[in-house]
TrEMBL record:
Keyword Translocase assigned: no
GO molecular function, one term: DNA-binding transcription factor activity
PANTHER family, A to Z: HTH-TYPE TRANSCRIPTIONAL REGULATOR GALS, LACI-RELATED TRANSCRIPTIONAL REPRESSOR
The keyword Membrane appears for this protein: no
Record's protein name: Unannotated protein
Swiss-Prot/TrEMBL keywords: DNA-binding, Transcription, Transcription regulation
CDD domains xref list: HTH_LacI (cd01392), PBP1_LacI_sugar_binding-like (cd06267)
Gene3D superfamilies: 3.40.50.2300, lambda repressor-like DNA-binding domains
Residues in HTH lacI-type domain copies: 7-61
Length: 334
């Protein structure tokens, strides 16, 4: 079956018995067009299945109605339910404002790579960055006037618009809870410490120790990458080196579940032998057995706030950075 050719202004104008200029005015919402003529155009548009061509619309209006969501990582991140949840929050708010999400998952370490060229080529109206390791590309894009939002605190004091979770407070609360429940030797499995969030959660852990007048041994810090596998691997290594560890703060829920698996494989139980706390309070924390105590960040609200800050910039409204609170949700694991 031969596909029907794409409808054009010329085709619509011919069938509706009007000029191409009238078609353009109707499709661009000009209320001054005669009602009968407008109805005739819209009836033909419906019958032919006409859809606006995004590139042509962008040339005419200067807007693409696309917002890039750039995750500075690789595709392995999608094993973590965090990303599906946060992007749903972004997409919902953008769609309510007739904007669409363009997801890019790639390293943005180069200021002259394909992503940099794409974002500078006028293909998107703005960019929201997640898990940013370096600020150089964002600085370059900001100089071009492209609206930018960073989900996560910037690496240094800047004028970038950002939204973040209270990562320091969450790390502090998790560690303090383990100490208060009687744990004598609390370890941490960090996330990606090349990101500000990873460092802040580690800093919160250190602060809880300092308040006790103690300094945690370096051997109590294990470096994960937010994956289940790294949580399991690092927990096994911690227990092999220091069998008397009785508490662990894993910097996300997937690593916490990996840690629990390693603890149980060693013949120990959670929380009787080792108490475990995660971070995110994602669906895996809410459905795991034992139930996982976790630092709750409102992941949907994080995405929504990032989208709201982007929309405010597109409307030339004033914007301020936002820090969203965390809450420790206590379940069976600690």
């Amino acid at each position: 079956m031969t596909p029907r050719p794409r409808a054009t202004y010329s085709m619509i104008a011919k069938e509706a018995g009007v000029s191409e200029a009238t078609v353009s005015r109707v499709l661009n919402g000009d209320s001054r067009v005669d009602g009968d003529r407008a109805k005739s155009v819209l009836d033909v548009v419906e019958r032919l299945g006409y859809r606006k061509h995004r590139a042509a619309t962008a040339l005419a209006s200067g807007r693409t109605n696309l917002i890039a969501v750039v995750i500075d990582n690789d595709l392995s991140i999608f094993s973590d339910p965090f990303w599906g949840t946060v992007t749903s929050g972004i997409s919902r708010v953008l769609m309510e404002n007739e904007l669409q999400t363009l997801l890019l998952v790639t390293s943005v370490s180069s200021i002259d790579g394909p992503v940099a060229h794409y974002l500078q080529a006028g293909e998107v109206d703005g960019a929201i960055f997640f898990q940013l390791h370096k600020d150089a590309l964002v600085r370059k894009l900001a100089k071009t006037g492209l609206p930018i939002v960073i989900a996560g605190s910037p690496h240094a004091a800047t004028d970038f618009v950002f939204v973040d979770t209270d990562n320091f407070g969450g790390g502090h609360a998790a560690t303090k809870h383990l100490v208060n429940r009687g744990c004598k030797k609390v370890a941490i499995i960090t996330g990606d410490i090349e990101t500000v969030a990873g460092h802040q959660r580690l800093d919160g852990y250190h602060q809880a120790y300092r308040e006790l007048g103690r300094v945690p041994a370096k051997a109590l810090t294990a470096y994960g990458d937010y994956s289940y596998e790294s949580g399991k691997r690092e927990m096994a290594r911690l227990l092999a080196d220091q069998s008397d560890i009785d508490g662990v703060f894993a910097c996300n829920d997937l690593m916490a579940l990996g840690a629990i698996a390693a603890i149980e494989e060693r013949g120990l139980t959670v929380p009787n032998d080792v108490a475990v706390i995660g971070f995110d309070d994602s669906v895996v924390a809410q459905t795991s057995r034992p139930g996982l105590t976790s630092v709750r960040q409102d992941i949907v609200a994080l995405g929504e706030a990032a989208a709201e800050l982007m929309i405010a910039q597109l409307r030339n409204e004033p914007v301020e950075p936002r820090i969203l609170p965390t809450q420790l949700v206590i379940r069976a694991s600690a």
